[in-house]
Amino acid sequence: MKYNRIFLSTLLVIILLTGIASAAKPVVTADRTYFDINTGLYVLNGNVYIEVSNRVITAGQAKVNPASLEVWASGGISVKQRDIYFTGDSVHVYGTKDQARIDGGVNLSRNGLSISADGVDFNWRTRVAVFGGNVRVTEAGTNWSADSVRYNVDSNCFL
Question: Where are the domains of the chain?
Fold first, then answer.
């Protein structure tokens, strides 16, 4: 009886840990993939799709470092999380820092708001996007421009 309880308790812990580990497991697909043993990076080409938790990155090509959770992607990228949708030419995601740098014709679109710029730094922890270079904002039918704009995606306001 004592051994049955220990066995069942151990089995329950293993099942719970397996469920937790699989929940955090990223989904990565591409037309062509290989692991470069010299750099330690996964190289992805063609219709790249990377999903981690509720964040999705699409691109023409990408390199992924599984140790640092960094992603370098280019070729018409998009970065999406719930109603936040960024597009641009390239992205560098610093996975362990929850930060991303998107460059080249960046656009953010979400309910009634559109922001375009040369680049943006986005922090998933603070939920602040810092747009720089030729920033153009369209909000509720009003257009304006600036050199730099800080925008909090949670409070939907400019800082």
Answer: 27-158
